[in-house]
Task: structure prediction
Amino acid sequence: MLKRQLFSSKELEKATDNYNANRILGRGQGTVYKGMLADERIVAIKRSKIVDASKLEEFINEVLILSQINHRNVVKLLGCCLETEVPLLIYEFSPNGTLFEYIHDDTEEFPITWEMRLRIAVEISGALSYLHSAASIPIYHRDIRSANILLDDKFRANISDFGISRSMTIDQTHLTTQVQGTFGYLDPEYFRSSQFTQKSDVYSFGVVLAELLTGEKPIRSTNFEEDKKVSCIFSMCNKRGSIV
Result:
């Protein structure tokens, strides 16, 4: 298990200018702040919204799982803080935001080229293969989506957010659990049976691939049900020999 650092609440308050609103990088299950440590390292600090049993479980789960992972395309957990009322996790900072933002927010300054799309897809697939087959114990991520893919200073992809991930034994083929994840990326078979397998992560990765290829969001605003999911549209277009 990789060693992680224990941070004090005071140094994290100083790093974030007392959790100043202008340091906020994003919000989800918690709030993520940009911080500068005393040694001038730039970090991302994830602060849970509320204290309850499920959030505490996710916090502990993420620490345990990321402490077992060492892969260039998985976000690096630097440490945590145990002195505060709500859990705090400290990660390496990814200056170029998320893949979702990069695909769907118009940016002329740094266009996402086909070469970049292909490289990012290869990096994500390599990290998933590592989690499923090469880590010390198999790990199912359970929430692969473009918003959970961070881009570092060289636009390398890093899989993040392991709060609902699960470690598996070598002989386990599936995980039976309450359905969790993000609508639009969920494996339909998992949604139907509550059985999550490696293929469920791969399905979610396929939706990310469709995003990369088409530039469309997983769920589109349309009155036609069959045109809402980009995965369905991509499948139909692929049968026609076209992705547009």
